[in-house]
Specification:
- There is one protein chain.
- The chain has 8 helices and 12 strands.
- The two termini are about 35 Å apart.
- It has about 260 residues and is an alpha+beta fold.
- The radius of gyration is 23 Å and the shape is elongated.
């Protein structure tokens, strides 16, 4: 039966193997996200007889309005592989399994709104609230310190403006404001560097504390955005470049795909 199927095409000339793969791949990829506005998958395999040996020519995915792990909004994501070896039997079972790891060129676009929403995610808040590092508790008189009301504005030239409040857990809120440069370190970590602290919004008596707490917050952020903490099971992202463009933050790099994950 499979031998007969390999010769079938639809009226538009689309090969049956491509159609099957596109259907299975679309269903698989959609399940990686908690929510999505659109996910488009295009798999090329011509002639489809190559599919019997588990060989496909390329795999492309593009998505808009994606949500990862229920809290992290991605405005756009796309990736594209070269030739890939897959398990043909898994396709017949409605799944997509790789025979061997592969790499894909990838791009991820975050919006300013989405980044600010991410500061409300539990995974992020737990790194900003009730901090008991000795240096912070010395400032607060022995009480845990929290950084709240964090808001960022993307600026040209790979910089952002950040405002926040430091809660010393004694009824005192210290306003924080700064511009920070952002970059990539070791292809997996977003670094926050070259902060320019702004003290004009803080009362005179709070400015020294505001300076110290602002630098502490920069250090926390600099160690927070490590892509290994956000990887999908079986997929590692590596970054070559980031740039701010209007109200968007654009990452480009590649994905190391060991296996197709089953869920976000």
């Amino acid at each position: 039966m499979l031998g007969g199927l390999t010769g079938l095409t639809d009226p538009k000339g689309t090969d049956w193997g491509e159609r099957m793969l596109n259907t299975v791949a679309s269903q698989t990829i959609r399940h990686l996200f908690s929510a999505s506005d659109s996910v488009e998958v295009l798999v090329r395999c011509y002639p489809s007889s190559k599919l019997l040996q588990g060989s496909i020519d390329s795999f492309k995915m593009s998505g808009q309005g994606l949500v990862i792990r229920k809290d992290f909004a991605v405005e756009e994501m796309s990736f594209e592989t070269d030739a890939v070896a897959i398990d043909f039997g898994s396709v017949l079972a409605g799944k997509l399994n790789l025979k061997q790891p592969t790499q894909a060129v990838a791009q991820v676009v975050l919006s300013e709104i989405g980044i600010n929403q991410a500061f409300q995610a539990e995974l992020v808040k737990k790194r900003l609230l009730n901090l008991s590092e000795p240096g912070l508790m010395e400032i607060s008189g022995g009480e845990p310190v929290s950084f709240t009301q964090v808001q960022i504005e993307l600026l040209p030239g790979n910089r952002l403006h950040l405002v926040a409040k430091a809660d010393l857990n004694n009824g005192e809120l210290i306003p924080l404001a700064m511009t920070i440069g952002i970059g990539i370190e070791k292809r997996r970590r977003v670094s926050f560097k070259d902060p320019k602290i702004e003290l004009d919004q803080a009362p005179e008596e709070q400015r020294q504390i505001s300076q110290t707490l602002s630098m502490a917050l920069v250090g926390i952020l600099d160690n927070m955005v490590d892509l290994d903490r956000f990887d999908l099971d079986g997929v590692k992202m590596r970054l070559n470049r980031l740039e701010t463009e209007g109200k968007k933050l654009i990452f480009s790099g590649y994905a190391e795909i060991e296996r197709i994950p089953r869920s976000a």
